[in-house]
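User: Sequence in, structure out. Go.
Assistant: Echoing your sequence, followed by the structure tokens.
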Amino acid sequence: MTTEYPDGSELVSTGVTASETAMDTRALADELVRHLFDSMVSRGAAPDSGTREYVTDVTQACLDVAVATLDGRYKSAARSLKPLEVAAAQWARDGVPIERINHAIHDGFRLMMELISSNAFGTDANYLARVRRVAMEVLETVTSTMSFAYVKELHAVIAENHRIPRSLTVALLGGHDTSTITHESGIKIARSYSVLAVHFPTRRDDNNSTSSTHIIGGRVLRRIRVSLAAQCSVSALSLLNIDGGIILIPSSRCADGDLDRLVVGLSEAADIELTATCAEAEPEDIPAVVEHLRELLNLVRQLQFAPGLYRFADLAVEYQLTRPSPARRFLGEMLAPLDAHPMLMDTLRTHIGNNFNRRRSARDLNIHTNTIDYRLKKIGELTGFDPTQPGDLWHLQSALIVRKADVESA
């Protein structure tokens, strides 16, 4: 029996190497895979014979690495890692969960150690301790090799899966021909789409730095994409960045009410208050509709409306009032007499925002209702439009919309 273990030497006990103790790796792999697949069958997941042979080959590769390392044949061990790298990449493409692979690897090493220990009866404790230590090193090597190859291939798969839908989205938004992309990818163009233009508010941490803003924005964007995929499966197309972008959802997959729930779900997933505008469009009309939706989205932000989903019907009046025209110029100048009286302008804005409720406006401004009445009367005297009269109030409300849009766009 040998008790000295110089670096690079074989682990020997009673004249038997660890590899001889482990016996034939193919037989051991067969035994492990049989145990694994019997467990799968008991759970109602019966794999085919081709899968079993493939898994057995990979299991044997892991065992070959372990045995070669235990025997001190490190170059041979390194060569034995290659089949594992190839297998890990294939598992990533096939969508096999990485935790299942790691569980199988650990099962294999546990079974191997049990077999070595049972066949090494009577050997000294130092020998078994060295075997266990080297086996743990091999397990770490095998696990890290497999994980690195798996994640590398998974990133490649994700990039490819994103590239094709992204190319299709760019083509639709640009009004370009999509036949080549759809033919190669198998993705079908919908008859019509629910088109959303979305805006993500900027979030900053305590440092308020540009780098931190991009990190937080990237985190928000990842959460948005994950939530979008979960809610719409693979049918949704999107072109997004940390500020927002465009989402295309086949109309057949998303009823009108579903869009409101989608926006709420995206906001909750990313922990932001998302603002969006939406409309229906056939594929050839998407570029024009997107341009219009972006214009509406800018209007919502200029007027400082609450976050949420807006349709054209929600913004028709505001949209028309802010179009270039003589009427807009007239409305924009209507409130000019109040420029020298910011308190009156604030009162008018608060009163309209409170749906003309005098008590609520007085409470928000922390003044008496009589003061509200006095200020409203003064506004009427300066502008020529009485805020207490419905017809005049409509003019003042329209003028305030135009004024706010002008200020925000300046």
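User: And one key feature?
Assistant: Residues 354 and 360 are 7 Å apart (CA to CA).
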